[in-house]
Design a protein that fits this description.
Blueprint (H helix, E strand, L loop, with lengths): L5 H13 L3 E6 L5 H10 L3 E2 L7 E6 L1 H10 L5 E10 L3 H9 L11 E10 L6 H18 L3 H4 L6 E10 L2 E7 L21 H10 L7 E4 L6 H11 L19 H12 L9 E6 L2 H10 L11 E2 L15 E3 L1
Helix pairs in contact: 3-9, 4-5, 7-8
Length: about 325
């Protein structure tokens, strides 16, 4: 059996993955593609000019992918484009999949999980498609990895591969973000009709919240608008406290990633001059919002049980107020 040394694999990963630019796709709620593109450009990502319904493509090195996963407020999911393979015939697809260097992108003990669609193609049965891809990935990984990796008692790393087979062209992407990105931190207490954080952030960015001095959230519910506004005001990175599938990728280096995260966190801004007023007439909603306050927002977002019509807001002429 042909195997590759650890140093040889690291060298190939560095040359072909870490040092090269790749194409990524940030998925967004349809209708907000331009809003997400503007957010991406604001943090220095290279957005591709052709917008696609439901998402925005961008290119960059692997660090740009990590930065996007940590920093973007409007994206629901971020994937890494791996390649497009011919799929009109079984043998051609098998050959192309077997020839792709999966060992550079997937952890050696990986258990692939597939999310597959197929349309207008000779291979239309998704189970058959997944079976071909899964078997050829396993053969390739076994051929180019050390046998002891596969006899390890360590738990397998789950990695979702997104397969889109359309008109006999099979495109495969790696899910880089894992759980949907609106899940900013641990468990969240929600009220009736909860709003996703990503949706709230997109609405606020579309409204130009950064140009306002005061945000009033009078029917706060679980506080989503308030927390997202405070995060935008302060420049806090939204996904610093969650895990990602790329932690298991061969290209991932923990020390480098932690340094990047620390650097991004250090770019946060002072909240002086900004105000978020958070209230609800329902005491249960206020309790939920209070339980969701976390991190450095504790002194800034203070939900109160209060009727909107009894609110007293500093209406000085120089203050710009946004009510959501």
């Amino acid at each position: 059996m042909e195997t590759i040394s650890d140093s040889g694999l690291r060298r190939r990963v560095k040359i072909h993955v870490s040092a090269k630019e790749h194409v990524y796709f940030a998925i967004v709620q349809p209708g907000f593609e331009h809003t997400l593109a503007a957010e991406m450009m604001s943090i220095g990502l290279k957005v591709r000019p052709e917008l696609i319904e439901g998402g925005v493509e961008f290119s960059g090195k692997i660090d740009d992918l990590f930065k996007a996963c940590l920093s973007l407020r409007g994206a629901s999911r971020i994937v890494m484009r791996l390649g497009t393979f011919r799929s009109a015939q079984f043998h051609q697809l098998e050959k192309d999949i077997a020839g792709f260097p999966w060992e550079l992108y997937l952890p050696c003990n990986c258990t692939p999980v597939f999310r597959t669609t197929s349309s207008k193609s000779m291979i239309w049965h998704t189970d058959k498609l997944e079976g071909i891809i899964s078997s050829k990935i396993a053969e390739r990984m076994l051929l180019h990895s050390k046998p002891e990796y596969f006899n390890s008692s360590a738990p397998a790393a789950l990695q979702t591969l997104i397969i889109r087979n359309h008109k006999d062209r099979c495109s495969i992407s790696l899910d880089a973000s894992g759980a949907l990105l609106h899940k900013r931190f641990g468990g969240k207490n929600v009220t009736a009709a909860p709003l996703r954080e990503t949706t709230a952030a997109l609405i606020l960015m579309e409204a130009g919240v950064s140009g306002y001095d005061v945000l009033v959230d009078p029917m706060c519910g679980s506080g989503t608008f308030s927390f997202e506004a405070a995060g935008i005001f302060s420049g806090t990175i939204p996904s610093a406290d969650r895990d990602f599938p790329f932690y298991e990728w061969p290209c991932f280096r923990r020390n480098h990633f932690e340094f990047m995260k620390k650097s991004l966190s250090g770019e946060s801004r002072s909240l002086i001059g900004k105000t978020v007023i958070t209230c609800d007439i329902d005491p249960e909603a206020v309790d939920a919002a209070r339980s969701n306050v976390h991190g450095n927002l504790c002194d800034f977002v203070k939900p109160e049980a209060q009727d909107f019509f009894s609110l007293k807001i500093d209406s000085a002429e120089e203050k710009k107020v946004l009510v959501v």
